[in-house]
Amino acid sequence: MSRDGPIRLALVGGGPGSFIGGVHRMAALLDGRFAIVAGAFSRDARKSRERGAAWGIDPARAHAGHGPLLTAEAVRRDGIEAVAIATPNASHALIAADALAAGLHVVCDKPMTATLEEALQLASAVRLASTVFALTYTYTGYPMVRAARAQVAAGALGAVRKVVVDYAQGWLATAIEGENRQAAWRTDPAEAGAGGCVGDIGVHAFQLAEYISGLRVESLCADLPRVVPGRQLDDDCNILLRFGGGAPGALIASQIATGERNALRLRVYGERASLEWSHEEPGLLRRHSPDGRSELLYAGGEAAGPDARSAARLPPGHPEGFIEAFATIYRDVADAICGDRRLVGGVLPGIDDGVRSMRFIDAAVRSHERRSWLTLEGS
Ligand SMILES: NC(=O)c1ccc[n+]([C@@H]2O[C@H](COP(=O)([O-])OP(=O)(O)OC[C@H]3O[C@@H](n4cnc5c(N)ncnc54)[C@H](O)[C@@H]3O)[C@@H](O)[C@H]2O)c1
Question: What three-state secondary structure class fits 145?
Fold first, then answer.
């Protein structure tokens, strides 16, 4: 379905000094499919207007919080059609539910909610809505992640036997939460939810493992230590996985891995070959065969396959990264809004991925507390 002009989008979050809101903005604008026309960039009216002014938003459309935003936009003839949520986790559920109730499309950042209960309630709201609900699991927008997913689905590895995913960061190796706002809310259960590292980056690793392997985690056994003294939430995760069909797996995520930056790496071992993708070389997919051969597939190249080619914007060798991957998610959201709803829950993560991820966090936290294996409900 075609339409005239870009989709009118409001951003909630992304105020001065924030991290991911600005990435949402760049990604939404990259392909010209969205225009950011309004926002609640902060709960503070002055900061929201300040951010709006820097981004060329009419001051009358820069609000303090999502409630005034939705009320004001509902009565405009040129009001918003979609809302993007880039606030700390505990506010996602309410903002998403209110936006859906207002008949808007929703792009929500991860983790979808702060609790599993909120996720299940939001799933009911999404089922009743006729609009699109999508999640920005950033790594799903990388061409070579999509290539890996397509290869596994096409049987290029044979049956998947093992999945290993690790995600190492070092920025929380010391107690910086007193002076760093991103650290402050991520280490506070009232803002982050029950998971610390597991909810912040473990959830990316979990989602990616299921996204690429096509398998679903059935059970897990988690050790979630709080390494830095005084923390109320885990800052390190070590999780054994068991996938449907019996394949084993391991997920390691850490925010106290001194010296690491954003080292996400995934390996999928099949009976005939294995695949390896690393976020530090995102335009590359390694394929290893049992006879000692290894192949390198590059984003944008013919050999990477159609899924990777459609997600790549440049010929091989021209580096693309985080913002382009995020923009590919926005492009898929635009296609879904314009009629291709099959994308949601396919290449584009949707409500089911969100509920799965919240089941993962919930099960990991309970498994750690009980020191035992637990089954993921709904697997
Ligand atoms: N997809 C990814 O790769 C990725 C990366 C980083 C963060 N995230 C997620 O994005 C979200 C935000 O993370 P961040 O690091 O940008 O946080 P941040 O603290 O840098 O920014 C949050 C912004 O939201 C504003 N805010 C807070 N509550 C609000 C409300 N109720 N209404 C309007 N504005 C509000 C704050 O003032 C701030 O400007 C989190 O859920 C996080 O998990 C996702």
Answer: helix
Q: Mutate which of 11, 19, 203, 279 to test ligand 1's pocket (most atoms within 8 Å of Cβ)? A: 19
- Kindly report, residue by residue over 240-266, the tens digit of the pLDDT: 999 999 999 999 999 999 999 999 999
Tell me how far apart the alpha carbons of residues 284 and 281 are, in angstroms, rounded to a whole number. Answer: 6
Residue bearing tokens 């006729």 = 130
Query: Which bin fits 122, alpha (ψ -120 to 50), beta or left (φ > 0)?
Result: alpha
β-pair partners for 298: 284
Q: Which amino acid is at 333?
A: V
**Which atom in ligand 1 lies closest to the alpha carbon of residue 20?**
16
| Cβ atoms 208, 165 nearer than 8 A | yes
- CA–centroid distance, residue 194 to ligand 1 (Å): 17
Ligand 1 pocket, mutate which of 11, 20, 83, 191 (most atoms under 8 A from CB):
20
Q: What does pLDDT average to over the chain?
A: 97
Give just the sign of the alpha carbon dihedral 50, 52, 56, 59: negative
**Looking at the whole model, is its pTM more than 0.85?**
yes
Q: How many helices (H) and strands (E) does the chain have?
A: 13, 15
Question: Relative to the CA of 322, which ligand 1 atom is closest?
Answer: 3
8 A C-beta contact, residue 139 and residue 122: no
